[in-house]
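Postdoc handover notes: sequence design on the structure in folder B. Input tokens:
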């Protein structure tokens, strides 16, 4: 009974961690700007770079990765799961899914969040760091060549299950299914981007200089 109680609480915490809207809070606190009302209207890393600048974008990127990683790592507080077993990985994935759901539908700011790409990266880093780093490398190469964050995200997500299956010979079915779902989720959350890419109307990433902090009235 106690183990069930702990697991339920960890699930709630995972969602609340995922809901932390770092881009919205940083934008409002330091720049008096809601990033969701500018640029693409998305509360994610790319729009933070676009609206606020390089330094805030990097901070948001790191925070969003960290909250995904931390949500999955909560499993170590539950002592009834044996590491490297299917049951262990299944609960890791469930915690991660709740974190992504929280990022997309954050309770703190009216359930209007981002697409969850950085949070997904944090989840994968916690579960399978080597596969995550390979996918991140693919993302970086595609971004350098194409300058499209959306395209880079989708290709990196598409590559991930192949990396798991053919390079690391993963056998845990739930992890393989999760990797495929990541690919599908990235496509579903980037439908508008796909339309713009096909029409050659998608914006290429051009990191703007950091916005200055608004001056306080004396």
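Designed sequence:
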């Amino acid at each position: 009974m106690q183990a069930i109680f702990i697991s339920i609480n960890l699930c709630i915490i995972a969602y609340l961690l995922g809901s932390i809207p770092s881009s919205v809070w940083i934008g409002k606190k330091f720049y008096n700007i809601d990033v969701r009302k500018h640029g693409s209207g998305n509360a994610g890393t790319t729009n933070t770079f676009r609206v606020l600048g390089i330094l805030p974008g990097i901070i948001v990127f790191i925070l969003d990765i960290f909250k995904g990683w931390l949500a999955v790592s909560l499993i170590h507080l539950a002592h009834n799961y044996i590491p490297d077993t299917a049951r262990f990985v299944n609960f890791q994935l469930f915690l991660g899914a709740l974190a992504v759901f929280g990022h997309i539908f954050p309770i703190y700011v009216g359930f209007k969040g981002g697409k969850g790409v950085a949070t997904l990266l944090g989840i994968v880093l916690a579960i399978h760091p080597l596969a995550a780093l390979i996918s991140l490398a693919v993302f970086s190469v595609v971004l350098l060549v194409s300058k499209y964050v959306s395209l880079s995200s989708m290709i990196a997500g598409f590559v991930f299950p192949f990396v798991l299956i053919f390079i690391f010979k993963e056998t845990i079915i739930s992890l393989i299914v999760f990797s495929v779902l990541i690919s599908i989720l990235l496509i579903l959350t980037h439908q508008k981007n796909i339309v713009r890419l096909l029409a050659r109307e998608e914006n290429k990433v051009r990191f703007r200089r950091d916005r200055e902090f608004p001056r306080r009235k004396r």
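Context for whoever picks this up: The chain has two domains: 1-127, 129-203. Don't rerun without checking with the PI first.
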